[in-house]
User: Fold these one by one.
Assistant:
Number 1:
Amino acid sequence: MAKGDRIDPWSSDQSTDYERIVDQFGLDTVDASSLPNPGMLHRRGIVFAHRDLDVVVGCMGRSDPFGVLTGLMPSGRMHLGHSMVIDQVRWFQEQGADITVTVADLEALATRGTSLSKGRETAISEYVHNYAALGLDPSSTNVYFQSSRPEVQRLAFTLGRRTNLSEFESIYGFGGETNLAHVQAPLVQVGDIIHPQLDEFGGLRPIVVPVGIDQDPHLRLTRDIAQKTNWFNVKPRKSGGLTVALSVQADNSTLLGLNQDGSVDRESRDSLFQRMEDGVRGLGFSDLSANPKHGTLEVPAATLADRSEIRMAMLALERELGGMGLMPPCSTYHRFAVGMTGDKMSSSRPETTIFMDDEIDEMSKKVKRAFSGGQPTVEEHRRLGGDPSKDVAFQYLQFFFEEDDSVLEDIRRDYESGKLLAGEVKQICIDGAAEWLNELKEKRDQWEGRLDEFLAADAT
Ligand code: TRP
């Protein structure tokens, strides 16, 4: 991490000390065996952490609706690193999610000086085209632009009231010299992440945001702001079960049964509690203990696993009463693939990665030069074996090009034992990458001229 303990989302230099990050920022780790049909990135531990992933896994189990929100910076060329998020998005889509794709054209303007028209062109020709080729299903995918979706900007502004400059200073390291467009970018991203829950965009349902760890500051900010707006908090009860507690704020106090002088208005508080109890009973809980005066409703039989459904019921009630009823987003985090040179992957250094439209001989040159985990001489290699954890070609097979777990394990075993030489692993990687790139190109050709199918009405 560039500066101290902070994650800087705009730096290309990200920490890969994942254990520490999980610890420091209170992430949960992913257990692939608890997922239905785990994808390749889950089975191999590449998606390593999450926030509230169990909420969307619950939706999958009940066939309840849930959505994915992902975003792209329309600058530079799309490369392997970018495809990891899309692999995750595709997996969620296969499990029933609807997909919203943000083109972060305002952010690219603010932080990289990319004009909106250039951003638009790059987004479609470079990113949307490859997303299509990677297999996203257009019937449940909607691509939009930050600059042309007023609801997102309205949320950015409205929710901006729930944070301040000191918080931005501590999350992002902003200071007096930070330009104000850059300061607005995270708030627009909060709007991106929250807006699929609005009634016009699919309504109240869990939204999961698959990202690299560099984006976690935005998720922490969004979750924090969403929680601050909530009228009802659902918390674990000391003696077991859950408690729903009112969160009285300036703009909801009358609706939550308080008089101007701060005393409780028994009649309106009681009728509010009636509706809260109805909401919780609707989920099958009958043993409730209500304390309208204190503003708490206890559900002793509820477990932590029931929390998200109770929370959903209370958010629905909040919306009926005129509140925003916003659910904090869920998120998943993938490890960064190592750059081909053995250090960071970066689009500004083409030798560190494979671009989606690299020619086969370009790719093959890069793989041949890639950092290897082999021994200096064949003789030593046969004796000591290679180190797959350092070998770029092996890791690219693991992350991108070899879907069959047992084939990958055979390669690992033979490489570690010295049976396979580094050059041979590189050749396997080149063959896999060539097939992958050729197939992608073929799919891109098929989508040529049809990308409008992916664009939302406000993006065409
Ligand atoms: N900030 C992201 C990036 O740098 C782009 C982005 C904008 C985004 N809005 C988003 C990512 C919402 C995920 C969700 O790449």
Number 2:
Amino acid sequence: MSSAQQNLSSRKMVNISDIDHFRFTVLVAQWNKEVTGALEQGCIETLLLNGIPRESIRVFAVPGSWELISAARLAVTHSKTDAVICIGAVIKGDTPHFEYICQGVTNGLATLCSTQDIPVIFGVLTVNTLQQALDRCGGIHGNKGDEAAITAIELAALSRDIRSKEPLF
Ligand code: DLZ
């Protein structure tokens, strides 16, 4: 799982047909805004670079990563989005709060993934230090926002392709 040797945003382009038909919802936690703002920027730039029209990208701010769960649920339930991209940064502090938030957000978003038909992308950094976060939002390890955008496009296309094909058996 280590990203020590890996640039998280090495892939910025995908080759997918009718890509401009997709619509994306981007949810951005406001805690550690220096980090989440950079992740958001990388994510939006990568969506645009791949041909997603700006008007097909809706961005919503949520207070903290914890709120990504309810916001993502609202987005998959009440909108026509093709994928939801959740952006957050949880940085370890002096109390066990870090573990509870990480566990809650991970479990909450994983539950959505396994119970809803719309892909929910985990663009949440869970790191020990601010420097580790900075390294992953445009620093030496690239920008995980780019990676989240690419993953969202790929999952939206996968969902479209699976739904559009006649069952083989
Ligand atoms: C409370 C809290 C703490 C301590 N740390 C973070 C963090 O590192 N990253 C983050 O996104 N949010 C943090 N929060 C806020 C919670 O996610 C949530 O917004 C509050 O507990 C209110 O529900």
